[in-house]
Design a protein that fits this description.
heterodimer, A: 179 residues, Alpha-Beta Plaits, 2 domains, six-stranded antiparallel β-sheet, 4 helices, B: 161 residues, alpha+beta, two-stranded parallel sheet, 37% strand, elongated
Chain lengths: 179, 161
């Protein structure tokens, strides 16, 4: 008989605690499909934008049959400059497709996020229940990012506040955009 | 233009499998059913990236390798995922930090990985880190080229989130 004792613990809450929802408005979302052969070209474009002082709020990408689908969320003030740099990449046989959409973002984190199950599921259920549409979602590190159409972030925070525990002082704090 | 910029550290999360629907378009309720199954079975996701790509709503996520069979079992009853969901591994998450919301940090990373022809299955930013999904077989080379792109401290001074 195995006499080894094992202790297993799980972090569970009836209502998941957060450190508050951060809402960011006046953003532009750039959606691109980048051929794998153009990844270093995209890198050079991002370097040039970085040298020009352009910041970002979120970048995410996943591989598809057409290459890498890339999302870049940045302050709207940089939209024209980003578009100009992206246009340089559109030339040639391996085209990078792109479009910019006015967007907003809500992001949040909480205790032990990143090590627990069910948090993004709870968030998406809350948004669906209130009819809030999303453009993209990303969970990385201990943060959950929700990219929303322009004008939707307040409704999203209201929907999330119904299912998550929030510290009273910071539930609707608006954070400073990057850049 | 491609001069290096200071970064403080690098972190690897290994023993992962990538689960993705990337060559089809999913209804949002299908993604919800997938995530609901993971929640019901207390399966954690190390990284989740979803959005509308050129072919519709898609996602990529990384789970612990020991959870792969359970997740395969969970996806089988979801008919809309049949033939669309792919499991591939082993993969690692390679993170560099802090990016300071500077696009140059991402640019230098992509140049390094692209020049080395290291297959990149996705990437994502968090508050501090840039995280890249790479095959485990390429981990050493990916780490090496990223270290070469940044002035990395030998000992990461602080964690990231």
């Amino acid at each position: 008989m195995d006499k080894t004792l094992e202790t297993r613990a799980a972090y569970w809450e009836s209502r998941i605690k957060t450190y508050g929802f951060q809402r960011v408005t006046d953003l532009s979302l750039f959606e691109m499909t980048v051929s794998r052969a153009k990844i270093d070209s995209l890198g050079r474009t991002f370097c040039r934008l970085g040298d020009a002082g352009v910041g970002f709020n979120l970048v995410s990408s996943w591989a598809s049959s057409r290459g890498l689908e890339v999302l870049l969320l940045a302050p709207a003030q940089w939209a024209k400059l980003i578009e100009e740099h992206m246009e340089e990449l559109v030339e040639g046989p391996d085209k990078i497709l792109g479009r910019a959409l006015p967007s907003e973002m809500v992001f949040f984190h909480g205790p032990h996020f990143g090590d627990r199950s069910g948090i993004v599921d709870t968030a998406l259920q809350a948004l669906t229940a209130r009819g809030v549409q999303m453009k993209a979602v990303a969970c990385s590190g201990s943060c959950i990012y929700l990219v929303l159409p322009e004008g939707q972030s307040e409704r999203a925070v209201a929907a999330l506040s119904e299912v998550f525990e929030i510290p009273k002082a910071s539930s609707h704090k608006r954070s400073m955009p990057a850049g | 233009m491609n001069d290096t910029i200071p970064m403080e550290g690098m972190k690897v999360s290994g023993d992962l499998v990538r689960v993705s629907v990337a060559n089809a378009s999913l209804a949002e309720e299908v993604v919800a059913r997938f995530l609901g199954g993971l929640t019901d079975n207390r399966i954690n996701i190390n990284l989740f990236i979803g959005g509308k790509g050129s072919e519709g709503t898609q996602f990529t996520c990384c789970i612990a390798a020991p959870d792969e069979e359970r997740v395969k079992t969970l996806t089988e009853p979801i008919s809309d995922l049949k033939g669309r969901v792919q499991f591939s591994g082993p993969v690692d998450l390679l993170s560099v930090f802090p990016h300071r919301f500077n696009l140059k940090a991402l640019g230098l990373s992509l140049i390094a990985l692209g020049k080395a022809k290291i297959p990149l299955h996705g990437f994502c930013s968090s508050l501090s880190a840039l995280t890249f999904i790479t095959d485990h077989a390429d981990l050493d080379q990916a780490s090496s080229v990223l270290q070469g792109s940044f002035s990395l401290h030998a000992d990461p001074p602080r964690p990231f989130c």
